[in-house]
Amino acid sequence: MLSHWNFYKKLKGIFFLNIVTTVLFSALELAIAVLMQSYLQISGLVQQTSSSPFTWINNNLSLQSFCFFLLLVALIRLFVEFFMHYTSNIIKHKGILLLREKLFDRFLDHPPLSSTYVNHLNGTIFNHSSQYLAVLILFVSFGFLISLLLLYMFLISWKQALICIALTLLIGSFSKIVTKFAKKYADVIPHQNQLITQYIQKISSNFFYISLSKMTGFEKQKLHEKNKDIFQNAHQSTLLTSFSSSMTPFLGLLMIVAIFYTSQFTFKNQILNSISFLYLFMRYIQFLTSEIHYFGQLQIFKPHHDEALHFYASPTHGQHIQIESPKNILSVQNTPVQIAFDHVSFSYNKKTLFEDLTFTIKPGQCVGITGESGVGKSTLFSLILGYEKPTSGSILINHEQSQNFFAKHPISVGYVGPEPFLFEGTLKENILYGSHHFVSDEEIFHALTAVQLQEFASADLLSYKLTEDLSNLSSGQKQRLCIARAFLSKPSLLLLDEFSSNLDILTEKNIVKTLDEVRQNITTLIISHRESALKNVDTILTLQNRSGVSTIQIQ
Fold this sequence. Notes:
The chain is α/β, with parallel strands linked by helices. 59% of the residues lie in helices and 12% in strands.
């Protein structure tokens, strides 16, 4: 609950403003009730009573004063209702703002969140969580409102007010029972939404395989079934909450009958003469109906809100990636590093991935890493960079723990993965992304030529605009641009993960040749399934899966 408070305390200003306006709104409702009673007494439509605590107002109010006060109430109510509507709407956007701030902070943590989970949170969970906040603030304000109306009714006619309290408790108990069943269906919907998001991602990543296997129809059917399951649970939950909401006005009418009957035959007083009580009572029924409806809506959105708050309360790990301003040029060391694994074991989700890995990569060595999919080749990179910590053993970079080394020393690390990271902007902006030292145009031209992009190696074409979807570059051009960017960063350590997957053999050969020319100044690790990419490496580390645990063979 303390972690939830850390979230809600950032919304306390909105809640406070809403409660203040709710109290003012209830006072205005009372004022309208008193003015209505006064007008009817002034007009002689109802007899004057001495039982009301507001009799002195009713007896001394002229028609002109009545019109003036009614107009004043209307003007004040205009501003009060504005703030009530404003707070109930702005809290949705404020809630999403806070959740997304946390998401964006966590998204680039080490290790990063999966894109599927991010889409699940940002799409379904956060939107429903914001709906929960909007309904919650209405539920709280209406709770205050009906409580204050009940208090005013108690001041006017305490006997009838006691009947209202008793019947309200009965209506509340009925609503709670029905909503409990609705919640059972609503609770499973967030998990179902997450599963269908993950499955869509899985199908998207394997579209060619599914299509060539002629299993498209089968996968469509599975998606439709998952979609129908979500609808069925949503349908059951909505059915029950709608039943609860529609029963409340019916029970409210029964409450009216009970009030009139007991007033006439039990308490022997003419409640119809107390127009102020009747007005407040009818408004009480109206707001009570809305309160029951909001209670049902809260149960539907609560599972999503709970998941959002669980994410919000989760600790932020790792360091944030900082993009330096071009004016803040760093002094970057570019001497090759030594990497030493000393009896390293690593487990993930209670499953052992590596066990007792021991090897040393000398400064300036070029090392190839091979092995079947799933043996942990990319995980080696995460361990070296300190994004993951070994379960046992140590990883030393220049004789220092990897977690400390990169934080203490201003060295540059180049990385090229199988998916090129580029963005909308000029070619020069993309190629200088992440460079924290001065780079001349001549150096850019040299790097572009080295990766077979000499057609862009001119001052005019450095301003060439990449579109948002990067459709004006081929797959090979995107990959080569990322490799040129890695060269320009003057790295002490260069990590290449399937860097040549989108390159033709000739281009790959020329890039490997360029690597040979600069390798003495860089410690290079290359993950690749292509023998041609590892042709000139000094050493090959082959990861082998034995009984579910990866071991290493050095060639």
